[in-house]
Design brief:
With 142 residues, the chain is mainly alpha-helical. It has 6 helices and 2 strands. Strands 1-2 form a two-stranded antiparallel sheet.
């Protein structure tokens, strides 16, 4: 058992594992790609993938400040990973869509995460991995 996690409660253990996995997936991507993409940028890309949400929708539905969200969107745009388009009949709002490059990067990253998940399954057992995922998806009544 990981000694650093041994004395933590559930919430802190989940948080530590989440940070560990996010750092690892970010490192795996950035070690294998010329395009640096941060975890926050991946978070936004996940909200956009195969959709065309407005900037205001993305801003309201992620736990990042409005200013930071706009900065991240501009960074993704400058990397040619997403495009910003005007909403028809609405001059104020704009919608987002991943570019072909953005979709390719997102799909490659999903494959990296699937490979990491497979490694976790090999280490803790496939049945335990399935059970862990199921438990995390349950309605906890919170």
């Amino acid at each position: 058992m990981n000694s650093e996690l041994q004395n933590l409660d559930l919430i802190d253990t989940l948080s530590e594992r989440h940070l560990q996995l996010r750092k690892l997936t970010e490192k795996l991507w950035n070690d294998n790609s010329d395009i640096y993409i941060s975890n926050s940028e991946w978070f936004i890309m996940a909200r956009i993938y195969k959709k065309q949400p407005t900037i205001s929708y993305v801003t309201k539905n992620i736990n990042i400040s409005r200013q930071a969200t706009h900065k991240l969107i501009k960074q993704l745009d400058s990397k040619n990973l997403l495009e910003i388009n005007n909403v028809e009949y609405n001059k104020k709002d704009k919608y987002l869509r991943l570019t072909k490059l953005g979709e390719e990067c997102y799909e490659k990253n999903e494959a990296l995460k699937a490979n990491l998940e497979k490694k976790i399954g090999n280490k803790i057992g496939e049945d335990n991995l399935v059970m862990l995922k199921d438990i995390l998806k349950w309605d906890w009544g919170l």
